[in-house]
Amino acid sequence: MNNPLDVAAVVGSLRRESYTRRLVEALAQLTGPSMRIEIVRIADLSLYNQDDEPTPPAPWVEFRTRIKRADAVLFATPEYNRSVPACLKNAIDVGSRPYGHSAWAGKPAAVISASPGTLGAFGANNHLRQSLAAVDMPTLQHPEAYIGGIDKLLTADGQLANPGIRSFGEKFVSAFESWIRRTA
Fold it and tell me: Does the reported pTM lie above 0.90?
């Protein structure tokens, strides 16, 4: 059997008990042996400043190297003020530089957003897609994944709480795997 697809997950929430991170961890449990999802830490990325490019900070170099090694990227975001959190946008900026050497270019992507509210971070999801288009990432269009009421959809032990959300999660990871194989 070939090596499993290596999916780097970029989670736009730094909170210890982040629903978004817990959702990604639950999705990772739904993948079969042909795909592996690993969360890539973004908390250590200093704000992007082009002046730092001649000697980029070690976390930038490590992040870019990890993203380049991945077969695809899963972006998971909450919504802050109808957009993505600053840490997620910063990670996109760090990975897209230096100009002409983007870690993102051509890499298949998917977006999932989650919120305790009913809209499921719809605004952040769509705003994030604009940035992914700008960095040349072919992004899964369907199924769209806006998970509202996430605070009620995860169990204390990190599982998806009901058959409906579990079924959706299985369909999402399956569609993403197919997307990666078609576009990689």
Answer: yes
- Average of pLDDT values for 62-81? 97
Tell me, what DSSP letter sits at residue 139?
Answer: B
Q: Determine the pLDDT at residue 158.
A: 87
Write the CB contacts of 74 (distance below 8 Å, at least 6 apart in sequence): 7, 8, 9, 10, 24, 27, 37, 109, 110, 112, 176
**8 Å CB contact between 96 and 131:** no
Buried residues in 69-84 as b, exposed as e (16+ CB within 10 A): ebbbbbbbbbbbeebb
Say if strands 146-148 and 72-77 run parallel, antiparallel, or are unpaired.
unpaired
Amino acid at 51: D
Q: Does residue 1 carry a pLDDT above 70?
A: no
CATH fold label, 5-183: Rossmann fold (3.40.50)
Interatomic CA distance for residues 102 and 24, integer angstroms: 24
Overall average pLDDT of the 144-152 stretch: 93
- The secondary structure element, H or E, covering residue 126 is helix 122-134
Q: Which residues pair with 39 in a beta bridge?
A: 9
Domain residue spans of the chain: 5-183
Contact by Cβ (8 Å): 139, 109: yes
